[in-house]
Design brief:
heterodimer; A: mainly alpha; MetI-like fold; 9 helices; 84% helix; B: mainly alpha; 81% helix; 0% strand; elongated; disordered C terminus
């Protein structure tokens, strides 16, 4: 009974295609924000003078309501997937950058000195000690980025990006409770699964490389 | 052109939505955190639930409220509260449960009851994370309050959605820009409040390890 109703809604609103669109935007945004965020984190670590103003700027962007940010992007990037992906990146940049920077900078000096004592060069210390030790922190940042990206990709449905936000909006506007429930629960389940997997990876990295 | 009056009305509605839902979240959130402190199994349920709901996209939360409660002001408050409650509960709980065991022992040794220990030892210790949680919740509430306009809550989101429907960039911005202004004001004012309430007065000068 329930199963049939769910499949009816699922097929009528093409939820398979919507899910693919959703995950596509999600992956593209996440990959770009991780690459940009980690790079920016490393750059800030190299040039520490810029770290505070840069992180403060990103922090201020973070307080912007997500819907307002999407709207601000419309005159620049139009509607659809592009502004959605840009908004995802803007939001996810802070957690990834901040955690990369904090992770790299807060490696305990004793550990680094051990590296020097056994004769490692600067580059080797960075590669073999500093980066692995900060991995759990970086993974934590990526996990936050995953939650943010999921949220904004869903919001993208409102500005015509497709994905699972689109049937949610249709459901609200036309007051179709069954569509809202099926899509809403599905989005919720997807989000929890992704967050859970990221949490597991973070935990394993902490066990492997964590300092305590 | 958007009438100034419409923007003002929407801004006032927005502020009411934010503060009303924030008030409800604080009133519910802090007792929940205290409950979690005293009951192990409850603690597990509350914290697991908090983490789980945090991962769910806001739009999905707002949407699911519609079949449950319908549309309008109160469903919107409920949806915003679902979002804003979690940082408050979690941060208060973290603050309360991470109080220095030695201070707790000392308080017990002085003959303070459990309630007095919570009130005079644990709470002062929990203020900084608690206020950080409340500030985060306020900013989040402002963000969700735009979205709830889609379920008829009023507020600045009304202008945003009106603009989206009519492809009118001016109307959209008339909703979005004041909302960003409110976000920045909330951030600044709560940070100030946080400093005033947590500096010196509660923590005392001899409690450096707390800061």
């Amino acid at each position: 009974m329930v199963f049939e109703e769910v499949t009816a809604v699922w097929n009528q609103f093409n939820l398979t295609e919507r899910t693919i669109e959703h995950l596509w935007m999600f992956s593209v945004s996440l990959v770009i924000s991780v690459i940009l965020g980690v790079t920016l984190g490393i750059l800030l670590y190299r040039h520490r003078n810029y770290a505070e103003p840069a992180l403060n700027g990103l922090n201020a962007l973070e307080t912007f309501p997500d819907m307002a940010l999407l709207v601000l992007l419309i005159p620049i990037a139009g509607i659809g997937e592009i502004p959605t992906i840009i908004a995802c990146i803007i939001y996810s940049l802070l957690p990834v950058t901040r955690n990369t920077y904090t992770g790299l900078i807060s490696v305990r000096p004793e550990i680094l000195e051990t590296g020097t004592a056994i004769g490692l060069t600067g580059g080797e210390i960075d590669r073999n000690i500093r980066i692995p030790v900060s991995l759990p922190m970086i993974a934590g940042g990526i996990r936050i980025a995953i939650v943010f990206t999921m949220g904004i990709v869903t919001l993208g449905g409102i500005i015509g990006a497709g994905g699972l936000g689109a049937p949610l909006q249709t459901g609200i506007v036309l007051l179709l409770p069954e569509v809202i429930i099926v899509t809403g629960l599905w989005v919720g389940i997807l989000a929890v699964i992704f967050d859970g997997c990221a949490g597991l990876i973070e935990k394993r990295l902490t066990v492997r490389y964590g300092e305590w | 052109m958007v009438a100034l009056e419409a923007v003002l009305t929407a801004t006032i509605q927005q502020v009411i939505l934010v503060y009303a839902s924030l008030a409800v979240s604080i009133i519910l959130g802090i007792p929940l955190a205290v409950l979690a402190l005293y009951n192990r199994s409850l603690e597990k349920i509350i914290i697991t639930f908090a983490n789980l709901v945090q991962a769910i996209p806001t739009f999905a939360v707002v949407a699911i409220v519609v079949p449950l409660m319908g549309i309008g002001f109160w469903p919107a408050i409920f949806a915003i509260m679902l979002r804003a409650l979690l940082p408050i509960v979690k941060n208060t709980w973290i603050g309360l449960s991470s109080a220095d065991p030695a201070s707790i022992d000392a308080a017990t040794g002085l003959g303070l009851t459990r309630w007095q220990t919570t009130r005079f030892i644990r709470f002062p210790h929990a203020y900084p994370p608690m206020f950080a949680g409340i500030k985060f919740a306020a900013i989040l509430a402002n963000s969700v309050a735009i979205l709830t306009a889609i379920i008829g809550s009023g507020g600045l989101g009304t202008l945003v959605f009106e603009g989206l429907a009519g492809i009118n960039i001016t109307t959209m911005l008339a909703g979005a820009l004041p909302a960003i202004g409110i976000a920045i004001l909330l951030d600044v004012s709560f940070t100030r409040l946080e400093h005033r309430l947590t500096d010196g007065r509660w923590l005392g000068k001899n409690n450096e390890k707390f800061s």
